Amino acid sequence: MESRYIGLMSGTSLDGIDAALIRVDADNTVHFEHSISAPLSPKLRSDILQLCGTSHEEIELLGRTDREIGRVFANAALQLCESAKLKPADITAIGSHGQTVRHRPPNTDRHHEHAFTLQIGDPNTISELSGITTIADFRRRDIAAAGQGAPLVPAFHAAAFRSEAEDRVILNIGGMANISLVKQNGGVEGFDTGPGNVLMDSWINARMQRDFDRDGDWAASGRINTALLQHFLQAPYYSQTGPKSTGREQFNMLTIEESLAYFPPIAPADVQATLLELTARTICDAIENASTDLAPVFICGGGSANLALRSRISTLLSKRVVSDTNQLGIPPDWVEAVAFAWLAKQTLNHLPGNVPAVTGANGPRILGAIYLA
Ligand SMILES: Nc1ncnc2c1ncn2[C@@H]1O[C@H](COP(=O)(O)OP(=O)(O)OP(=O)(O)O)[C@@H](O)[C@H]1O
Ligand SMILES: CC(=O)N[C@H]1[C@@H]2OC[C@@H](O2)[C@@H](O)[C@@H]1O[C@H](C)C(=O)O
Question: Which CATH number is 3-150+333-371 given?
Answer without folding.
Answer: 3.30.420.40
